[in-house]
Amino acid sequence: VAKDRGRAHYRYFQEQMNLSFPNEALMESHLRRAIEKEELTIHYQPQVNLITGEINSFEALLRWNNRKFGYVSPMQFIPLAEESGMIMRIGDWVLDEVCKQLEYWQKKGYRPVRIAVNISPKQFKQENFAMKIREKINKYGITPHSLEVEITESAMTDMQDTFAMLKELKDIGVVISIDDFGTGYSSLSYLKKYPIDIIKIDQSFIKDMELDEKNAAIATTIIQLAHSLGMEVIAEGVEKDQQVEILKSANCQKAQGYFFSRPVPIDDINQSYMTAIQP
Ligand code: C2E
Ligand code: MG
Ligand code: MG
Ligand code: MG
């Protein structure tokens, strides 16, 4: 019986291999041409001020729609792009698109808004990353603090290098946030050493916070921590009314999530938010 099970297991494993490995290689080769084939787009998710209801910032989230694979989640293709090094080119494309968008709004004379861009650890660890950011800002002539870089705790490994890079970014004037805060297993001591502006509470602590007292306690504590350190705080993945209420009573300033809006194409942003605030 054990032998049969072993054999069945082996066959299952082989089928999985046949399915996933060549598929991944194929997907990678499609991803390699995604930029030139104009298969990448950016969706934007509004970040809502819980006190005033105002929306002054958006998070840029990459989307890939391929002829063979259809819509592929960033959870699937971003790791692929990271492993293959493609993330440098893709990340640069995202930054370029976002800065172009900011230039468009700023030239049209819209009220100031900010866009947050996800930066992968590999991108952040490039020696010339801050210089690349400076070049983009100069290329489009945008206000530096209209651009926010979201970095995860896992990217902040080497103390010296990380500090130097964040300091350089800070000097340029871009806004720095920590994404997925509380999931990175890192020590809290970096919070006092690094020039961080915003903490984004990971959505795992927001999910079910209306039922799970532990999640609510963790989220509330992160909010207090951020405020004590003079940082802004954003709750991610807010889906329910009750979550908004808990966050409000904990003095959380900002939130984003399906409760307010899913990430949407730029045309929707322009129609829903940008025309209304035109002077
Ligand atoms: P993230 O930066 O933590 O982004 C938040 C994710 O949560 C997004 O998933 C967003 O669509 C989703 N989300 C927003 N509100 C809700 C909600 O109320 N409920 C739930 N369940 N989910 C919500 P998405 O767009 O699939 O992106 C996944 C991850 O992929 C991002 O996590 C980010 O780490 C990465 N990613 C996306 N775009 C880029 C990019 O341009 N560059 C890099 N390096 N990574 C990116
Ligand atoms: Mg993010
Ligand atoms: Mg996140
Ligand atoms: Mg993330």
TrEMBL record:
<feature type="domain" description="EAL">
    <location>
        <begin position="24"/>
        <end position="277"/>
    </location>
</feature>
<protein>
    <submittedName>
        <fullName>EAL domain-containing protein</fullName>
    </submittedName>
</protein>
